[in-house]
Amino acid sequence: MDYEKILLSHGAGGFLSSELIARKFLPLFSNSYLKRMEDSAVLAIGKNRLCFTTDSYVVNPIFFPGGDIGSLAVHGTVNDLSVCGAKPLFLSTGFILEEGFSMTDLEKIIKSMADAAKKAGVKIVTGDTKVVAKGAADKIFINTSGVGAIEYKGNISTSSIMPGDVVIVNGTIGDHGAAILCSREGLGLKSEILSDSAPLASLVQKILKASPNIHCMRDATRGGLGAILAEISKQSKTLINVDEAAIPVRDEVRGICEILGLDPLYIANEGKLVVFCAEKDAAKVLKAMKKHAYGKNAAIVGKVEKKSGAGRVIMKTVIGGSREIDLPTGELVPRIC
Amino acid sequence: MDYEKILLSHGAGGFLSSELIARKFLPLFSNSYLKRMEDSAVLAIGKNRLCFTTDSYVVNPIFFPGGDIGSLAVHGTVNDLSVCGAKPLFLSTGFILEEGFSMTDLEKIIKSMADAAKKAGVKIVTGDTKVVAKGAADKIFINTSGVGAIEYKGNISTSSIMPGDVVIVNGTIGDHGAAILCSREGLGLKSEILSDSAPLASLVQKILKASPNIHCMRDATRGGLGAILAEISKQSKTLINVDEAAIPVRDEVRGICEILGLDPLYIANEGKLVVFCAEKDAAKVLKAMKKHAYGKNAAIVGKVEKKSGAGRVIMKTVIGGSREIDLPTGELVPRIC
């Protein structure tokens, strides 16, 4: 279906986002780098394999339990580089500020970015600041782009996924989205839920060290674990079986989702990734993940069954049924990241 | 002076922009890459020297005589890489769209970016799209970040500038800013002025080929030629003498500036650069520039006289006086790029 106007859903990481990219961007920007459709582009420069990625952050509110737009902008881009198997090295940062934005808040955000960059082992090496008139933007938007170096020998890509691969997630899902929802003005929800926003670079290095058979990784941001699995199944043209009972979800997150009629499977994360690895190495990888602060609650949640036409994800539900997991079609939580 | 709130001038490329960066960003993001304060960071990865840069584009109106926000977003970033002596290779693109934005306009902009990228010889390899609610952004903002490879042996940097260096500009100044001003609703100015928005990559390659003694290049965007020269004089701690009569300005641009009480020297360009090169090679470089479509009106406009404390730019005016050129302190034209 063709839309005359941009909808919120076009930016939600679900079906319409995917359509917008496939139908409007890809045909015109067409090149082999972009066609991979992973979180980062892999570039060959001289003898080096580099990763290059970009993300704009428009999260609302800009300060939320467990983080702020600054730390999120560092973590998100660090994670997009990490899941492509790269060691994140350098970030750029582009600020769009609304006239009248608080200098104190800006300073807090800069400090938070600097701290997050230090913790993630990356340097912010170049930047740009634009200011637009009051009302032409909402407080602050931040773009971070990143460059990383790939040293891992394997080709980390949906195209490397094979039947038999085990699907591992590094912990509880939905924390970021639930924290944002609870902190929105007007919702009146009180909770202790913190965003899981975190830099996954060192966890990924442990994962890569644990096995030469890591086939694919992806961070489960907009659209949550559900959207990411659906996207991966389509790209790898495989059937992925998932076990709902095995997916770690905090009770508080489950509670909020029940109140609001949402599914944790489609709630955004900012410190969660899925790993596809050869079954024989799954135990080793899981063990390595569990030793890391950001992988304590890691769990095997599914398995790639076979090649399957357009790709499908089937979830065995806790009540014993089964359900197809597809890209979400609406906008669950606008401005989640 | 400390400001409690962000002003439009903090994004105008003049004194307050410079203060914001020096006092708020640099102390916290501090690293040797950022401290160079050039248009791009220079990164050593393996045996390669790479350039990495970012810019967000918020120009208003989004379609203007001679270009649009899409072509501008490609040219601007290509030019930031080029003036650091790099061959631009790869771009990322981050869109922030306002809910309700016209799909037809988005398609025009994507097409314009694709055409500009092709013409500039770069590939758009990774991207991101966010949508915010109606009223939370003004139509469309685009961030482009870029990666390029440096092959030139010399160190193109303000730190390489030496007394005796000649200052060359590649053509008429103020065209972009004047075109934007004339196209603003409500101003009621009619003119034939087109933005000079253009990719300078191939011109820069000709310049670098013409001389091994290119010391510094900078594109004269926000703040215009005046701000860029003032910034360079401060960074290189030199006295730069400029001859107003030698600076190419179109009659139409001069006319618009007179009506509005503006100085072409501080009006933005999007296809103009200044080159600092050793005097002995100036004629060769000028000749090479004049042969190129984007350098036909190139001219020698000044000379670096000597090292000079904090740095100064002195302009010999057309009426025979002299005038100090400093960073502009106000906001001349908001959302010019």
Structure description:
Two copies of one chain form a homodimer. Chain A is 31% helix and 27% strand. In chain A, the strands form three sheets. The first copy, chain A, has a seven-stranded mixed β-sheet. Chain A has a five-stranded mixed β-sheet with strand order 1-2-7-5-6, with helices on one face. The first copy, chain A, has a two-stranded antiparallel sheet with strand order 3-4. Chain A contains nine helices and 14 strands. Chain A starts with 14 loop residues before the first helix and ends in a 13-residue tail after the last strand. Chain A folds into two domains: 31-150, 60s Ribosomal Protein L30, Chain: A (2-Layer Sandwich), CATH 3.30.1330; 158-325, Alpha-Beta Complex (Phosphoribosyl-aminoimidazole Synthetase, Chain A, domain 2). In chain A, helix 3 packs parallel to helix 4 and helix 6 packs antiparallel against helix 9 (282-291). The first copy, chain A, has 337 residues and is α+β, with helices and mostly antiparallel strands. Chain A is globular. The model of chain A has no long low-confidence stretch (mean pLDDT 94). Chain A has helices at residues 15-29, 32-35, 69-82, 103-120, 175-183, 201-210, 224-236, 251-260, 282-291; strands at 41-45, 48-57, 63-64, 67-68, 86-98, 123-132, 140-150, 166-169, 214-219, 238-243, 273-277, 299-307, 312-316, 322-324. Chains A and B meet through helix 1, strand 1, strand 2, strand 5 and helix 4 of A and helix 1, strand 1, strand 2, strand 5 and helix 4 of B.
